[in-house]
UniProtKB/TrEMBL annotation, chain A:
Annotated ChsH2 C-terminal OB-fold domain residues: 404-458
One term of GO molecular function: acyltransferase activity
Domain of life assignment: Bacteria
Record's protein name: 3-hydroxy-3-methylglutaryl CoA synthase
UniProtKB/TrEMBL annotation, chain B:
Keywords: Transferase
Ranges where the Thiolase N-terminal domain occurs: 20-227
Organism: Sphingorhabdus pulchriflava
This protein's name: Acetyl-CoA acetyltransferase
Domain Thiolase C-terminal: 267-394
Pfam family, one: Thiolase_C_1
InterPro entries in UniProt: Thiolase (IPR002155), Thiolase-like (IPR016039), Thiolase_C_2 (IPR055140), Thiolase_N (IPR020616)
Molecular function, one GO term: acetyl-CoA C-acyltransferase activity
Length: 483, 402
């Protein structure tokens, strides 16, 4: 039997990085004690991003260069799933255009959701895509607001040509309530940090590390990379030391540049680690949340052959400085701005049309005429070419991974957008197909006719009356950071 | 080519309400205002009308569905009333219904009326609305100026026109229409503006500023049509007849990459114009068309329309505009009544408002703004939708026998 382990990895970090100093500049009068945290920046999702969209982007990164038909299961782990009852991983499956015969499940309820899903996948037989993504809200002027960042990580797990073989893992489950968020609540409630440090991290996670290493027959000194996803300064090193792991092999918890991305954080940090790990090196992954998970991997030669991808480093380099705390609050629905009458359009989504058009809407799958080769979006009964009214000749033609060029555009200040002006335009895909679509994360002067674009999966609109989120694809300018 | 309708139908009378922010009137009152003028002009009784067509673009915030609102407002004698909607071509579409009814012989006298009460919607600009459940999932819900602004970027790229040159050319379009509207007592906006005001106005949708966008107005316009023979029998001496009436709707071809459309012009306008010229027997439009009312919803739209109507050469419309070719005293005045820009744009009324101005000009009844060079053929043009998916209407009216 072939080895089990990680076949590929990927990450997604939103482009905007909110400066913590900007948060403190606004809230310092009220919460002066947060001054010590007012350093560095945190990744903030745009208004049209959530745990699903970020998860899709991390998964796309992970699946770079791979034939997606190998994916048998997909898991989306998050504490901020947009839907309480609609399979969130099902939306991801459609966006990734995976086969209908793909298993899918959501994992939630703990910051360990990502690492536990990864462990379960590694214990199974299927080729499984494990995605962890979180987009947590925090009250203004809270510690959490300073600490939390938005991100997603993804691991393709299975057997065969693994880039990191799974040496084994250990879990510990104890109902330790360091913080909680009840169903339907927007914000976490946290207990004292000193208690969490001593009784949580030191006692529970410390024990899991010791027992995990013991179970695998490993000495702490054998670990070359300790990915301890505890976003508190100094704690990973202390835990490592106590477990016999050299403190200097602890991975950067990314607090200065991303923030604590919740259930996603272990997978995001693991991605960053795998980007620089060398064949033969042993990687320990540890996460905390009502207990702890400890997993150990060994990088293989296959790691060096993995096609280039964004990963954490690519996304960190692709950044936009953001000091607009007001916009961040508005995008989190924490600041009630007058949206104007144009925001009142009823966004009711009939389930019937979404079902019929799910491949086009969620998967950006167009049509290609088998007779003329004409590519179009969306797929229609009669060919788009009126000179050849071929009927019923179109086969599915995915467009999401294709680059496109702008042929016409505008920046619209009149239409409602949570992030004005609304950039949109007409784009032509490489290899055929044309789309009029919105542009995401665009700065002034970035767009001109001829500019190359790529597609990203985003929120199209939300139905404020019935609370349904509508997703579609938008175009972003191709940048130097693109793989 | 079908036989066409040239000179088969004459305009018996026309009317147009004052356009603007008509806080004082409901839609049915605006309909009466336009109709009263047309009825007097036609010199007939309401009972002589055989059928009617009502053009309205927005219904939910306006008069509601069906032809009943027109029948009720005018107390029509239980004749057939059909409501039509074809975006901004709705007014011309209602005219087509009435004209075709007369041309077919089904009616002796028919009425076309367009109305819109936009100022009751609460919007500055056009209301946002669904375009159907499938479109709403994948289409862009932009504003009307944003939709049309896209043309400017593609036009610049295709013809190598600098951002500044194009911005100045489209500014000239607006300055010209404001100058014309200032002479028109029925126009919504009756104030001239200078080019710096236009250039420095707040940006609505790049590159369109506030003065690049037409007025959102209330108003109604109508036409009563019959055959030339009946018109003469009713005592009309000088007749304005319909020379051509063509409408073209996108079939999706613009969305075919490599099919030929590059985003810089309106494909349907070119088709409707070519068919209209053929129907009217016009072979050299730049020389034969006396004056034009075109769909200047936005300044860039008017500019590219000059090329789509084969008046300006492709890529040179911006130069003709800049050189004053379309000014009130230019070779072919365009929007001599102020256009959508200043007369205002109540969607359902606009097509008929344009024909109304052309009718007045052909009969020498346009007052201070009357062209003195005896116009013969007058063209009106409407455009609705968005550049990749639109409907165009071209109506040419002229002196009977020309």
């Amino acid at each position: 039997m072939s080895e089990t382990g990680i076949l590929a990895f990927g990450a997604y970090i939103p482009k905007r990085r909110l400066q913590r100093a900007a948060i403190h500049a606004f809230n310092g009068w009220f919460a002066g004690g947060l001054r010590g945290l007012a350093k560095g920046e945190k990744a903030v999702a745009n208004w049209d991003e959530d745990a699903i969209t970020m998860g899709v982007e991390a998964a796309r990164d992970c699946l770079t260069g791979l034939d997606r038909t190998i994916v048998q299961r997909v898991t989306l782990a998050s504490t901020t799933l947009p839907f309480a009852d609609r399979l969130n991983a099902g939306v991801v499956k459609e966006a990734l255009a995976l086969a209908d015969a793909t298993g899918a499940n959501d994992a939630a309820g703990s910051l360990r959701a990502g690492s536990s899903s990864l462990m379960q996948a590694l214990d199974g037989q299927a080729t499984q895509l494990v995605i962890a993504s979180d987009n947590r809200k925090a009250k203004p002027a809270s510690e959490a607001e300073m600490n939390y960042g938005d991100a997603a990580g993804a691991m393709l797990v299975g057997q065969g040509n693994v880039i990191a073989r799974y040496l084994g893992g250990h879990s510990l489950t104890i109902d330790f309530v360091d913080h909680f968020r009840s169903s339907g609540s927007d914000f976490d409630y946290a207990w004292e940090s000193r208690w969490i440090r001593d009784e949580g991290y030191a006692a529970i996670l410390g024990k899991a590390l010791k027992n995990g290493l013991g179970k695998l027959g490993l000495d702490g000194t054998a670990i070359d990379h300790a990915v301890i996803a505890v976003p508190v300064k100094g704690v990973p090193e202390q835990l490592a030391k106590k477990a016999g792991i050299r403190p200097e092999v602890c991975s950067d918890p990314l607090m200065a540049v991303v923030g604590d991305s919740g259930a996603a954080h272990p997978l995001v940090m693991l991605t960053a680690c795998l980007e620089k790990a060398k064949p033969g090196e042993k990687i320990l992954l540890a996460s905390f949340g009502q207990g702890a998970d400890v997993l150990v991997f060994e990088a293989t030669e296959a790691l060096t052959n993995l096609p280039p991808r964004w990963g954490v480093s690519g996304h960190l380099a692709f950044r936009q400085d953001d000091s607009n705390y007001g916009r961040y609050l508005f995008h989190r629905n924490l600041l009630r701005l007058e949206k104007g009458i144009r925001a009142e359009m009823d966004q009711k989504q009939p389930g019937t049309t979404l079902f019929r058009q799910r491949k086009a809407v969620l998967g950006l799958i167009g049509g290609r005429c088998t007779k003329t080769g004409t590519v179009q979006f969306p797929k229609t009964e009669i060919n788009v070419n009126p000179n050849d009214r071929a009927q019923g000749t179109q086969e599915d033609y995915p467009l999401a991974e294709r680059y496109a060029k702008v042929i016409a555009f505008t920046a619209d200040n009149l239409t409602f957008s949570p992030d004005p002006p609304s950039f949109y335009g007409t784009i032509d895909f490489e290899g055929g197909g044309r789309l009029v679509t919105e542009f995401a994360d665009v700065c002034a002067d970035e767009i001109e006719v001829g500019v190359e674009m790529r597609m990203v999966f985003r929120i199209k609109a939300t139905d404020d009356q019935r609370h349904f989120t509508k997703y579609f694809w938008k175009a972003v300018p191709v940048s130097k950071g693109d793989a | 080519m079908p036989r066409g309708i040239k000179d088969k139908v004459a305009i018996l009378g026309m009317g147009c309400s004052k356009f603007g922010e008509r806080w004082d009137k409901d839609a049915d009152q605006l309909m009466v205002e336009a109709f009263d003028e047309a009825l007097v002009d036609a010199g007939i009784e309401t009972s002589q009308i055989d059928a009617a067509w009502l053009g309205v673009g927005f219904d939910a915030q306006n008069i509601g569905p069906s032809g009943i609102p027109l029948s009720m407002a005018l107390r029509l004698p239980n004749i057939g009333v059909t409501k039509v909607e074809n975006y901004c071509a709705s007014g011309t579409e209602s005219f087509r219904g009435a004209v075709y009814a007369v041309a077919s012989g089904a009616c002796d006298i028919a009425l076309a009326l367009g109305v819109e009460k936009l100022k009751d919607t609460g919007y500055g600009g056009l209301p946002v609305r669904s375009r159907g459940t499938t479109f709403d999932m994948i289409g862009v819900t932009g504003s009307a100026p944003g939709s049309f602004a896209q043309i400017a970027s593609a036009y610049r790229a295709k013809h190598g026109v600098s951002r500044d040159d194009l911005k100045r050319a489209i500014a000239h379009v607006s300055v010209k229409s404001h100058a014309n509207g200032a002479k028109n007592p029925k126009a919504h906006l009756q104030k001239a503006v200078d080019i710096d005001t236009v250039l420095n106005a707040p940006m609505i949708a790049d590159p369109l500023g506030l003065y690049d966008c037409c007025g959102v107005s209330d108003g109604a316009a109508c036409a009563i049509v019959t055959t030339p023979e009946i018109a003469k029998a009713l005592g009309k001496q000088e007749l304005v007849t319909i020379k051509a009436l063509q409408i073209s709707a996108s079939n999706g071809w613009e969305m075919q990459q490599g099919g030929g459309w590059d985003g810089s012009y309106f494909h349907t306008t070119r088709i409707a114009a070519a068919k209209a010229y053929e129907e009217a027997g016009i072979t050299k439009p730049r020389e034969q068309v006396s004056l034009m009312e075109v769909h200047d919803c936005f300044s860039i739209t008017e500019l590219v329309t000059m090329e789509d109507l084969y008046i300006s050469k492709e890529g040179e419309g911006w130069k003709d505009v800049r050189d004053g070719f379309f000014d009130a005293d230019g070779s072919i005045p365009c929007q001599i009544d102020g256009g959508l820009k200043c007369f205002g744009h109540p969607i359902g009324a606009s097509g008929l408002r344009m024909i109304y101005e052309n009718y007045l000009q052909l009969l020498g009844r346009a007052g201070d703004r009357q062209r003195q060079d005896n116009p013969v053929f007058a063209l009106s043009h409407n455009l609705g939708g968005q550049p990749v998916q639109n409907v165009s209407a071209v109506a040419i009216v002229g002196l009977h026998g020309a």
